[in-house]
Amino acid sequence: MRDDDPMASFSVHVEVTQRPGIADPEGATIERSLPALGFDEVRGVHVGKSIRFRVDAPDEASARARVTELCERFLTNPVIEDATIELTALAGAEG
Amino acid sequence: MAPKVGVLLFPGSNCEQDVVEAFAGLGAEPDLIWHGDRSLGGADAVIVPGGFAHGDYLRPGAIARFSPVMEAVADFAASGGPVVGICNGFQVLCEAGLLPGVLQKNAGLRFLCQTVTLRVASKVSVLTRDVEIGTELRIPINHFSGNYTCAPETLERLVAEDQVVLRYTDNPNGSMDDIAGVSNAAGNVVGLMPHPERASSALLGSEDGLPLLASVLAATRAAA
User: Rounded to two decimals, what is the model's pTM?
Assistant: First the structure.
């Protein structure tokens, strides 16, 4: 990489969850099964997807913008799913 | 001239031969089209068959929509050509944005494999233009994600514009408004979860899929 074109690397964690109001049958089924195991106190079970990858970008804002676009166009179906994006700068890491 | 029916073949499709067989029985000339092709080879109608295109990874249809052939399908659809997605094909057309909404997991979280009763709800679509509204059809379903979901305002529009094509008489999967199939506004792009090709011979237990498939053929340029 050239010195005049500095790029940083970010570790990305995208959590995909059902949008509010969209049924989560998997979470509901897990929750229903819990009393049989003695976990009566557990509430609000939701099941989502966890996607991890790395991305190179000049800075965190542009990395976030690219990942947001990726989520909207591919990693989620915005009709039923939301994405939560976590970015962590990788110190000195490349590739 | 016999209408040419292009049946898409993705890695993971598994209903394409049944579709070919059913259309051949109706006198059409069906042909498979590999998902990597950029041309539809002069097809008069396109069927996106059932199966598990690209392994259903990420979401059913999410990766298939990027297959090279899908650009040609979108152009064909925009020019008014009949496009029908069956089961996984319906999921692909939704992900590709050619149909509104999405198919999410069945409400009961069960894979459903059974024959259901459908009621024809609209004649606007190429799939039902030659079938009377209210006609009941016995056709098999075979899916895990068939629970049709869309924004409430989308559903209002679908109902108002006669884009709900088929409804279940006894909702098996939690679909909004008992929807088994929808079309685009023009009616030339249709998706349905049930498999009409599996109800194409008395030997299979039902011939109720034939009027739907025949309707698609009648809607082609070749028949016009």
Answer: 0.90
